[in-house]
Specification:
Strand content: 5-15%
Number of strands: 12
Shape: globular
Largest sheet: 6 strands, antiparallel
Distance between the termini: 46 Å
Oligomer: single chain
Length: 432
């Protein structure tokens, strides 16, 4: 891309982001001001706030799709933050888990020459020009390895990222700083800081290959684990060649039911996999969402009739041993409804004060605090869901943003895995 084109595109990205940011601020200020001054009942004010959430989410979605690059990654992060954002925002961004821009074959060909010194044809007998999937940072092509005939998935980074990432990170950082100035109570700068910390790891596909192999070796030692991780053939910083293993989304209920796969078993298996990463002796996969996990039927397994396939191993973090122990004791206290133990280990894990504890307990369990204090194993009722949803519009969201801004970053990444299980549990009881 020449300098003139880059400057033109840069102006367009910045202008669309700035315009949308301004419209979001105006919308929320207007609604919040009206809610303070009008005579509507609580239901009326709540309906106006929900409508504002949806308008702003729709506007933001359009900008994220237009700008692509790490803006798609930001949207994917937001789609999994049910513990923090209103439903209107997270639900709107879910399509970003699967729908992303595609780089041209010509751009991919040039990247192979730049990075390996050879064209694509030197590595593969066949290489599908159209990708089978595209994500925020990369896309995947099917290919046949030269010489061996092995069918592989070739993950290639979007070549344009090399030019756009510095600008997009700066825009993201600026956006959250402006949000903090306009709404000081909603400080989300920690999210842009986390992206700046994690992106260099996610953009290094050689590191991703190492992460995949380490995790694969670990789970191969776990008896009856249904987890499959594609093998890695070779990798460069922007190219990763893996074993091709296909599957369906875990929330494809029609596929599960038509293949006799028990939804409850899938839910339990997902929980066991990520609990092993949180509490076991292996790093934590920190980007779990519906687009990174697949399922396929497998009648050869002794305990399950399915495989769980885990993709995208770019971002892993080690959890300190003491934090694992304290977090385990926290959950034991939650299961036992042990208030004293919950408060003690919330303080050890995340520095939570007694005043902050009820909100933190709700965040990590996805339950109303009154339920947590009695029995978290009870089924969440429709009334409880409504109470939590209503609380987000009554000030809890502001308190939660402030709370999550002070806890260790690894706790936020653990919350993402909790959220994945909660999202699946919320759909597995539905009829299609």
């Amino acid at each position: 891309m020449d300098d003139a084109t880059f400057q033109h595109e840069s102006f367009g990205r910045s202008q669309s982001e700035t315009k949308t940011r301004s419209l979001r601020s105006q919308s929320y200020r207007a609604v919040l001001k009206v809610n303070e001054n009008d005579n509507d009942d609580d239901d009326g004010r709540y309906a106006k706030l929900k409508a504002c959430h949806q308008r702003c989410a729709n506007r933001t979605m359009r900008v994220l799709e237009r700008n692509g690059s790490i803006f798609i990654k930001l949207g994917q992060h937001l789609s999994s933050m049910n513990y923090l954002l209103p439903l209107e925002w997270t639900r709107t961004f879910i399509p970003l888990q699967d729908r992303c821009p595609v780089s041209s074959f010509e751009a991919i060909q040039q990247m192979f020459i730049d990075d390996t010194g050879q064209p694509i044809a030197a590595h593969f007998d066949d290489f599908d020009r159209e990708p089978i999937g595209a994500a925020s940072l990369a896309q995947v092509h099917l290919a046949t390895m030269k010489g061996t005939g092995a069918k592989v998935a070739v993950k290639v980074q979007h070549p344009a990222l090399k030019e756009w990432v510095p600008l997009d990170l700066a825009l993201t950082r600026f956006t959250f700083r402006i949000l903090k100035l306009v709404f000081p109570e909603y400080d989300l700068e920690w999210l842009s800081n986390e992206m700046e910390s994690s992106l260099p790891q996610e953009l290094d596909f050689a590191l991703e290959g190492q992460n995949a192999l380490v995790t694969k070796r670990y789970f191969n030692t776990i008896d009856n684990s249904p987890l499959l991780i594609p093998d890695v053939y070779w990798a460069r910083k922007r190219i990763l060649v893996m074993e091709y293993i296909a599957g369906h989304r875990t929330d494809d209920l029609a596929y599960l039911d038509s293949n006799g796969i028990d939804r409850d078993e899938v839910s339990a298996a997902l929980a066991r996999v990520f609990n092993e990463m949180i509490f076991g002796d292996t790093p934590l996969h920190c980007d779990p969402h519906g687009g990174n996990i697949a399922i396929r039927r497998n009648d050869l397994r002794p305990k399950h009739n399915f495989d769980l396939i885990l993709y995208d191993h770019g971002l892993y973090r080690d959890i300190p041993v003491q934090m694992k122990r304290d977090y385990a004791k926290l959950w034991l206290a939650v299961i036992d409804a042990d208030q004293e133990g919950m408060r003690k280990y919330s303080r050890s894990v995340a520095g939570i004060t007694d005043e902050q504890f009820p909100l933190f307990a709700s965040a990590i369990t996805g339950r109303d605090y009154r339920a947590v204090s009695k029995s978290v194993v009870s089924t969440r009722s429709a009334e409880e869901k409504e109470v939590i949803s209503g609380a987000m519009g009554d000030g809890m969201l502001q308190e939660l943003v402030q709370l999550l801004g002070q806890v260790p970053r690894i706790i936020l990444l653990i919350l993402k895995t909790n959220d994945l299980s909660e999202q699946y549990d919320s759909v597995r009881t539905l009829r299609y």
